[in-house]
Amino acid sequence: MVLDSIETAPREDLRQVQDDRLRETVRNAYENVAFYRETFDEAGLAPADVESVDDLSKLPFTTKEDFRDTYPTGMFAVDMDEVIRIHASSGTTGKPKIVGYTRDDLDVWTDAVARCLVAAGVGPDDVVQNAYGYGLFTGGLGLHQGVEELGATVIPIGGGNTQRQVELLVDLESDVLTCTPSYALYLAEVADDMGIDIRDLPLRTIIFGAEPCTEPMRNEIEERLGVTGIDIYGLSEIVGPGVSVECEAQAGLHVWEDYFYPEVIDPATGDPVEEGEEGELVLTTLAKDALPVLRYRTGDLTTLNYDTCKCGRTCVRMDNITGRSDDLILVRGVNFYPSEVESVVLEFDEVAPHYRIDLRREGSLDRVEITVELVEGFDGSSADLEDRIETRLSNVLSFTPDELNLVAYGSIARTEVGKVQRVYDHRGR
Ligand SMILES: [Zn+2]
What we know:
Blueprint: H1 11-32, H2 34-42, H3 64-69, E1 85-88, E2 98-101, H4 103-119, E3 127-130, H5 138-150, E4 153-155, H6 162-171, E5 176-179, H7 181-193, E6 205-208, H8 215-225, E7 228-235, E8 240-246, E9 253-255, E10 260-265, E11 279-285, E12 296-302, E13 304-305, E14 317-318, E15 329-331, E16 334-336, H9 338-345, E17 351-362, E18 365-374, H10 382-397, E19 403-407, E20 423-425
Parallel strand pairs: 3-4, 3-5, 5-6, 6-7, 17-20, 18-19
Antiparallel strand pairs: 1-2, 7-8, 8-9, 9-14, 10-11, 11-12, 13-14, 15-16, 17-18
Helix pairs in contact: 1-2, 4-5, 6-7, 7-8, 9-10
The site of zinc ion has 6 residues, from loops.
Subunit structure: Monomer.
Domain AMP-dependent ligase C-terminal: 333-427
Domain AMP-dependent synthetase/ligase: 58-283
């Protein structure tokens, strides 16, 4: 089922909508945002030079530094009296990125999230327990407004309060839970301690986002909670959650291309990659008034697939994001992503889906320490398991950690609110 016919429209029709909306977005950005006027002028470009999405590659990129340099509202194209909502990025370093929405912008976002919910198999009769944080973070209110738009029932519990989350899953028979992947696992553990097996509850779908999630991690969640795990993607600079989502085929995330135009580039050169090749996702908003964004470098690595999906949707699918270009760990001439470590360690049945990576400097040498939890009640040989994990890491990632610690189940701190942290870099700058 689809919410809007544009989701299955012939690509030529979609293209027409994209070109019209892009021209309008470029005009709005140029006329109303000093940052864009200056970038265009410097590049010797006028809005009329952008007639279609084919012309996008002429434009310079927008980066997170540009948001920082224009903090707080320098990227806004409208006066504050037209803005009816403010959100902000989590801003792990420096100032957060402030974003704003007009009433029309909120309608676009709400519609994008409602489409995501329908793609994930959510219907008006469902009860959706929303465990994303409410507040400046876009997750909570973003999902909330989409659920209401669809006419389903939203439980706005927000993050944390895990025992109460479990009680509500039981008492209100929630059909759908929205949260981060790491929180889904934590919830299952708390439920266990309360003597409740989530697999016995009506809960059938978890819509998760805000953190990268590898395929083995998804499998763990699906098995442990007896659910279908659907990945949703978004970022506050573009809109918040709702830029793309998996459909029930779980074969890539459909991007709502009439609202957000995706490109994939080589992060080193900035050139577009061949279709199907991996690179950095770049997004252009096509229907936002308060904060039009042209060619935003997301830092997220993915590929695009333009084949029509089993579900009938014609809009492009992006790969599940398992790495950000910023997350690449460089140690002694070897690079790897934390998600690659995750994929390897979760292949082992003896290992629980909790791990951390510590990077330290000793003298001039970098050291990598990987800490992995054993499953509950592990009674095998740790030395043997350690050997097998090290061999596998060395075969797949061509590196062996300086230290591999196998620790008892429950030893690694769980994250109850916000995004999980798995990499701890103690090396300083
Ligand atoms: Zn699909």
